[in-house]
Inverse folding.
């Protein structure tokens, strides 16, 4: 966004624009919901016009392996290797390794499939050898035939910690690593806050910052991922928020909340526990000044007025990405919407 | 052995002796051949009377994982988890991980089964956390229900390097890590020598040395493993050879060479390349002064005279351990043989 193009001015633009060949789009994404839109975007934009920045704050060490759940979700989804039955992990997965871990009485709360292990083992080895997460992710994507750039938000460790407690049942505050909260405790603890360990001293990845500084960047699309634990860690990186504000690119977010619930994951439960109304307006308010446009589902059309009354342009459309055609259609609509917000001299 | 009990004297003893409840046996073992006899020994001796020391000089790092092939061979063989079809690795194995490694264009010359991976991943993690190989091996054995002590020869890294070359085809000397020679190059290179990297500064494991110093130790059984790459690394550890010589325990080796060939592995090929006759007499000569008794197969009875003419008592028997009954029978015969060499006041 660039405050010179005011929202009011942008909103008056209605003429359909096409993305010019030299213009670029950057997507910010988290887990499964984000990866769905990222896949749609890869279907309508060539690799030279689209890059995807992925949350790495839910990375963690497990059994001595460096696991990057959100990055792997994108690697699998964008190469047609995702396990759609499970909703996570790899297709045609086998579980012999986990059987053996159980036999050896070790930690088996985090399921690691046999095929999936290859990414974790190679990533761990290569990090130990001094390669960075960006380079490793690029190499994996290349091996999987993914042409679009998948960029970890940072090559430095940032770790989302979930603040829990301060309720009657759970009086003591406690910080819990995200995967413990998400997988081991199945999102049961009541959330009272978040902390992104290491974010103050982390640096956004080089490619990420280069894209943000690129004058050809036409739009930044915040995918329908969990705002608190998937997108906020990316935005919390030093210089990212300011770069987004200074960029002439239009920043568009898609609501992960549809009809009072999250399509997937604990976003709605977290909002309730944080005493935030579970609706798209609250998501828009959460991103605040950063946004130039907001996309909500047709189920939530009643919220359009409230959001647009703040001066934020709203696109109401079908955001339920149940198949590849809808993902692609939604991706195209979001791009068109972003371009519609661009002033004619952009 | 203890030179006070001379061989000649020992040889005259023929009265059948029984192992007393306070007496102990130590086996030194390497890969699959050694594990067969080790299994037989566990069938005839209770855990308090038998411990097995295993070569760890063929350990190596692969894909960032610490792999201990000989230790794992024993863990699988002694818990009825060994893959008898393959002749290595785990039973009911699956190979999804290797498929993925291939897809990611990484090193796939060393096959790691999905079930097998659990040992490598947990071992690597625990070593990194500061546990030693002895403790880790003990914990794995316990989880697998193995009651007898499996003891790595050392908790320090010792690595067998194969010296190759100096032939017409292969004029240049080169040192090659054992697994590269054994697995990647399938024992093709011509062997001209061996080097046990790190052995000078390594310490034999605490339990190993404690057994050697135990006055209750009645016999040390050198399993029919490769003398050069399975047993020699154990014997090359500082203080081991001297402790064996000073111990009153009878040291008995079983020939891995039967009928001019090795039952398994490259021992015979190595002997040829080292210009050593491929027969049990050469194996006995290789161990030399260390031995108090030697066991050869009935197929090699023609070599008995040559060996016993050096003053070394020889047991000729069926050493082809094709089933569990034969393993058990052979184990018992070897123990009886060892005890027959003990002077009456031992």
């Amino acid at each position: 966004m660039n405050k010179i193009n005011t929202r009011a001015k942008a909103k008056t633009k209605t003429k359909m624009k096409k993305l010019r060949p030299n213009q670029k789009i950057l997507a910010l994404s988290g887990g499964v919901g984000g990866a769905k839109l990222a896949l749609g975007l890869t279907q309508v934009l060539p690799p030279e016009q689209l890059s995807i920045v992925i949350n790495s704050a839910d990375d963690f060490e497990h059994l001595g392996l460096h696991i990057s759940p959100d990055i792997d979700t994108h690697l699998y989804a964008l190469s047609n290797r995702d396990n759609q039955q499970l909703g996570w992990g790899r297709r045609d997965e086998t579980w012999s390794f986990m059987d053996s871990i159980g036999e050896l009485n070790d930690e088996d709360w985090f399921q690691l499939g046999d095929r999936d292990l290859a990414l974790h083992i190679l990533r761990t080895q290569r990090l130990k050898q001094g390669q960075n997460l960006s380079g490793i992710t690029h190499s994996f994507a290349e091996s999987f035939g993914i042409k679009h750039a998948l960029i970890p938000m940072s090559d430095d460790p940032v770790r989302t910690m979930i603040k829990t407690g301060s309720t009657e049942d759970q009086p003591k505050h406690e910080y819990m690593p995200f995967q413990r909260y998400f997988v081991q405790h199945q999102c049961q603890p009541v959330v009272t806050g978040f902390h992104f360990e290491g974010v103050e001293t982390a640096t956004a990845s080089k490619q990420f910052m280069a894209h943000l500084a690129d004058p050809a960047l036409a739009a930044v699309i915040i995918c329908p991922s969990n705002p608190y634990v998937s997108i906020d860690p990316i935005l919390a990186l030093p210089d990212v928020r300011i770069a987004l504000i200074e960029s002439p690119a239009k920043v568009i977010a898609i609501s992960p909340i549809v009809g009072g619930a999250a399509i997937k994951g604990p976003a709605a439960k977290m909002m309730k526990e944080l005493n935030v109304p579970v609706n798209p307006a609250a998501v828009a308010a959460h991103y605040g000044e950063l946004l130039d446009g907001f996309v909500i589902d047709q189920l939530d059309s009643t919220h359009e007025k409230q959001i647009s009354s703040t001066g934020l342009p709203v696109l109401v459309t079908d955001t339920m990405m149940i198949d590849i055609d809808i993902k692609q259609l939604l991706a195209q609509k979001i791009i068109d919407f972003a371009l519609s917000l661009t002033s004619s001299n952009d």
About this structure: Chain B touches chain A at residues 63-65, 90, 92-94, 96-97, 99-101, 103-106, 113-119, 121-122, 124-125, 128, 140, 143-144 (CB under 8 Å). The longest helix of chain B spans residues 324-340.
